Amino acid sequence: MLDKKSTWVKNKVDTLPPLPKASDLLAFNVSQNTPLTFSVDRTSISVGDDGVVRYTVVASSPSGARNVNYEGIRCDTYEWRRYASIDDAGTGWDRGSAFDFRRIENGELNAYQAALYQDYFCASKLPVGNAKTIVNNIRYKRTQSAINSR
């Protein structure tokens, strides 16, 4: 009986967070080789009892173009999914861009999900803590590799 795998149930995401405000964005490092800058909306971060860390991410180019997505990272399986992207007008969410969980890619130049998973969101296949802990770790650049090397 002990080897029976528990059935994972994902939380339903019925409501999306407000669109991010510049004052709520926390920048994080992805790669020295990408021209893009990445940040998460500190007010959007949540840790579900399904082990998924949900967040709004903003990727900005040097020319000022921005991609804004509401996503989730599943700590136990190293996967991520998109719930919505900002609409073309930049005034609301579009669920048409959503897709279900897929494997996080490490080697890509703009692999921000891998950076979030490894540095701030997950440790030992579990969320590193509640939303406040994650926000403070990003704010003060306390990455998991820095915490674990103490």
Explain the overall architecture.
- The protein is an alpha+beta fold and 150 residues long.
- The chain is built from 3 helices and 10 strands; from the N terminus they run ββββββββαββαα.
- Helix content is 16%, strand content 32%.
- It is globular and about 40 Å long.
- The N and C termini lie far apart (40 Å).
- The model is unreliable at 1-5 (pLDDT under 50).
Task: Summarize the entry for a quick read.
By secondary structure, the protein is of the alpha+beta class.
The global form is globular
Rounded to the nearest angstrom, the radius of gyration is 15 Å
The number of helical runs is: 3
Rounded average pLDDT: 89
Number of domains: 1
Largest sheet properties:
8 strands, antiparallel
So what's the CATH class? Answer: Mainly Beta
CATH topology: Lipocalin
Spans with pLDDT under 50 lasting ≥5 residues? 1-5
- Supply the CATH architecture: Beta Barrel
Strand content: 25-35%
Specify the helix fraction band.
10-25%
Keywords:
alpha+beta, two-stranded antiparallel sheet, Lipocalin, 8-stranded antiparallel β-sheet, disordered N terminus, single chain
Q: What secondary-structure arrangement, pairings included, does this model have?
A:
Elements: E1 25-28, E2 37-41, E3 46-47, E4 52-60, E5 66-74, E6 79-86, E7 93-94, E8 99-103, H1 112-121, E9 122-123, E10 126-127, H2 131-139, H3 144-148
Antiparallel strand pairs: 1-2, 2-4, 3-4, 4-5, 5-6, 6-7, 6-8, 9-10
